[in-house]
Each structure stands twice: as C-alpha cells, then as structure tokens.
Design goal:
This protein is an all-alpha fold and about 110 residues long. The chain has 5 helices and no strands.
Length: about 110
C-alpha cells in the first residue's frame, strides 16, 4: 500500500470510530486526492476546531471556493456541527475527514 492509501484507511477508521459514519470510500479517496500534498504535512493535514482563523480558511477555501457555496450563517453552523460530530476533545481532526463530512452535509459529491 502507498502512503496515501494508508492515510485514507486512517481517515476511514476515524469516520467509523469517532464520527459513527460508514464512509463512501470512493468519495473519501477523491477528497483526499483533492487535498494534494497537504495530507503529508503534520500541520496542514489537521484542522484546529478552536482556531477561528483555521475555521475561516476551511469556510473560504473549501466551502466557498471549492464547493461553490454562498457565504452565510449556515456554513458556520455546518462547520460547528462537523467539529461536534468529530468530537471537540479529539485533538487530531484530519482535514480530509472534515472536508468529507462537509461535502456530505451539503450534498456536493458531484464536485468530485
């Protein structure tokens, strides 16, 4: 298995164990590939749920630019819901998992 395959398996396990979701492996793979080399960097591969600047980046770069959503309170609510689902106490919130859950939440699988 490649390093990327190992990471995808880790993300799938997080979705099952920490979020109680059965992952769509095809979509999870596409989201992970879409993140490019950032998944291999310890800092950029995770999302800090308590850092406002980080959450703004998720909103602007992913939800608005990538998924094509309009800015609004519903985006902030969705991010908060995903952070709660992932578990506020969980320190390592993988970016691929967060993006996957947001993609599913807004039913934007067609972007991939």
């Amino acid at each position: 298995m490649s390093k990327r395959d190992d990471l995808i398996a880790k993300y799938a396990a997080d979705l099952k164990d920490k979020c109680g979701m059965t992952p769509d492996m095809d979509l999870l793979t596409k989201v992970t590939v879409g993140l490019g080399p950032s998944i291999y960097n310890a800092d950029s591969s995770t999302v800090s749920g308590s850092d406002e600047k980080e959450l703004a980046t998720v909103k602007n770069n992913y939800l608005i630019k990538k998924l094509g959503l309009k800015d609004g309170a519903d985006l902030d609510k969705a991010i908060a819901k995903v952070m709660d689902t992932y578990g506020q106490s969980n320190r390592n919130k993988y970016r691929a998992v967060v993006y996957y859950m947001l993609c599913k939440h807004f039913k934007k699988e067609s972007v991939y």
